[in-house]
Structure formats: structure tokens, C-alpha cells
Amino acid sequence: MKQQDMPVGMARDLEETDSSSEEEEEMEGPEEHPCIMWTGGFRRIPIMVFHAEAILTKDSYIRLIGERYHLSFKIVRTDSRLVRSILSAHGFREVHPSSNEYNLMWTGSHLKPYVLRTLTDIQKVNHFPRSYELTRKDRLYKNINRMQQIYGFKTFHILPQTFILPAEYQEFCTSYSKDRGPWIVKPVASSRGRGVYLINNPNQISLEENILVSRYINNP
Questions:
Q1: Which partner from 119, 139, 170, 216 sits 20 to 30 angstroms from 51, CA to CA?
Q2: Where are the annotated segments for Disordered (predicted)?
């Protein structure tokens, strides 16, 4: 179940629809809908809630909010069939990837700063700015290494000994001569365990792409 902030205008419409006066709202409360969760002071801020089972049930009542307020989405540089199915099941209409008329952009790549600056209050994206500083293994390693230098190794002693290859290949070989492993190899920008393997010798490593090599922890 996922949540998304609603467009400002939609929030006003929902608020006006749900009660004609403050007294009436206090007595009856906001309209109950499985895709609406009211938050904030006096429960006046609607959050849209997505239900995975809607893909199977194809409930017209679930699609009501998306269809009534003409909510739309676009998918860019990725094939997120599950995301497309969930949004469509909630009444969202898909628009062309080049369109600027959308409420939600689901992209497989990180957005440039100028794109983020053009977003309006009713537009959301699925990436935080510079989130790759944490999600890319090489960037995460470098950032933790920098924190170790600033705040001390003991404070950020949360990673095994690690090297980024091919740039640090000689350093890795020196360390390998003292501890022959096993070592674990990971692509710097992959996920879901793809491309991960164990080695016992530097000769087993391909240096054609950037990779991260860490001392393998048998019982983490």
C-alpha cells in the first residue's frame, strides 16, 4: 500500500464535497473512501492510498478518485509494468513520456536539477534529488569513507574493507596478499543481487566495468 500527496485543488474539492459546514464535518467527519486518508489539522489534508489488490479486483469504486479528478501519470526510461497496473487500477490515465500534463512521473533514471525545478505543487516524482549518493554502491562507499575521515573510523565502522576497481586494483591486491578471502564482488549500480559473485583470487575479477570488492563477512 503506497501513499501520495494529493493536488491542492483536489484537496479543496474533497473538503468542500465532504462537508458543507464545520458543524456538519464535526458530526459526520470526512467521507470515507478506501483511497483517501485524511491528515493534518482538522483532518483537512487528503493523502491518496494505493491498494495492490485493486489490480485483481478492478473495482470501479477504487478508480473513482483518479477518474473524478483526472489524475494522470507518465513512465519514463523504464518498463514498470506493476506501477502502470496499480496506477491504472486507481483511475490514473497514462500520458506520453514527453507530456508535461501529469501528476506523477515514474522514471528509471535520476532527474536533472532543472527538471526538478520545473515541477509544480501537484506533480510528484519517484526519486529524491541525488538519492544515488546512497543507492549507488560506489557513492555510498565514498560517502561513508568521507564520514570516517571527518568523524572518526570508529563512529562509521559499518562497512567491511572495500575497494573500487579498477581504480584501486593495486591496493586491493596488496590487501589480498594479507587476507586471501573470500571476497565479494558487486556492480556499482545494480540491484536485486544481479552480477554479485565471490572470488578467492584477483585473477577472477573482470576489470572491464567499475565494480566494488569487499571482504566477505561469513556471519554478518
A1: 119
A2: 1-33
The CATH code that applies to domain 133-215 is: 3.30.1490.20
Cα 158 to Cα 191: distance, rounded to the nearest angstrom: 20
12 vs 30: which has the higher pLDDT: 12
Model-level pTM? 0.68
Per the document, the length of the chain is 220
Residue 72 neighbours by CB under 8 Å, 6+ apart = 92, 93, 94, 95, 101, 102, 103, 104
Name which of 11, 108, 25, 119 is nearest 69 in CA terms.
11
Joined grid coordinates for residue 62: 477504487
| pLDDT per residue as tens digits for the range 32-44 | 899 999 998 888 8
Give the pLDDT confidence of 69-79 residue by residue, as tens digits.
Answer: 999 999 999 98
Q: What are the b/e assignments for 106-120, b being 16+ CB within 10 Å?
A: bbeebbeeeeeeeee
| Architecture of the domain made up of 52-129 | 3-Layer(aba) Sandwich (3.40)
**Omega cis (within 30) before 187:** no
3, β-bridge pairs: 49
Pairing of strands 36-39, 72-76: unpaired
